[in-house]
Design goal:
Metallo-beta-lactamase domain-containing protein, Metallo-beta-lactamase, Chain A, about 250 residues, Metallo-B-lactamas, 9 helices, about 25% helix, RibonucZ/Hydroxyglut_hydro
């Protein structure tokens, strides 16, 4: 059995700053690996307060899709924790060159020797860790950003993280069993490099997902009620659309 657990579902600065939803990352757990995707503010706390609790020693590593703070702030403390402050060489990190090496790097250099492996995400890059295999795809989001398409326990699980919509996204994430979309906005807004509900409709119509999960909500989505938006989309297209909530666990 594998699972996805949403420790937090906040997106955009105001929702994160006010903690209207938790801003922690997402747990990806297979039979032999546990990875944290985008460990934003509060991830370490939410791991310990989850029900059931997720012991930090069970975590094998991190996938960090980009440097923005709502995705990256707990990355260093988690890496330090799983390696026991460098007392043991352990764990893996998948992230961008910008996060590792630029003047805006968010991974502290002293942590690098603690890890068993550090892998730089690239467009079309294929990565394997234990029984998880995934491909990374470049997004359009200002900071160097990659979405991921995982093969895990016989299922295709795609995380379409922060991005401005562009047509190639459809082909990247086509035929996913679980299509997880960061839907910050209810409607499009010029200059905002985030997905909105009209973009969700494009994915439903053209990417042939079996199930869609929306997360990473900004204020316009919270005001509209993500659950109501999901219900409307499900009824309109005949595809199950779920609005993630803090603590949601999806098993498969």
């Amino acid at each position: 059995m594998a699972l996805i657990k949403f420790l937090g579902t906040a997106g955009a600065r105001f929702v994160v700053a006010k903690q209207l939803r938790y801003s922690a990352g997402t747990v990806i757990k297979s039979k032999s690996a546990t990875l944290i995707l985008d460990p934003g503010p509060g991830t370490l706390l939410r791991l310990s307060s989850a029900r059931p609790k997720i012991p930090i020693e069970s975590v094998n590593g991190i996938i960090l899709t980009h440097i923005h703070l709502d995705h990256s702030t707990d990355a260093n403390i988690i890496l330090d924790s799983i390696t026991e402050g460098g007392l043991k060489k352990f764990g893996v990190l998948f992230t961008t060159d910008e996060a590792l090496n630029s003047e805006n790097r968010v991974i502290l250099p002293f942590l690098k020797p603690y890890l068993e492996g550090i892998f730089t995400l690239t467009h079309g890059g294929i990565f394997e860790f234990k029984d998880i295999r995934f491909t990374s795809f470049k997004h359009n989001h200002g900071a160097e950003t990659y979405g991921i398409k995982l093969e895990i326990d016989g299922k295709i699980v795609s995380f379409v993280v922060d991005t401005l919509f562009f047509d190639e996204l459809i082909s990247y994430y086509k035929n996913s069993d679980y299509l997880i979309l960061n839907v910050v906005r209810l409607s499009e807004k010029e200059g905002v490099q985030h997905l909105s509900v009209p973009d969700v409709e494009k994915f439903i119509k053209y990417a042939n997902p079996k199930k869609v999960i929306m997360t990473h909500f900004g204020m316009t989505m919270l005001k509209a009620s993500p659950e109501k938006v999901a219900e409307t989309l499900s009824d309109k297209y005949g595809v199950e659309v779920i609005a993630a909530y803090d603590g949601l666990t999806v098993e498969f």
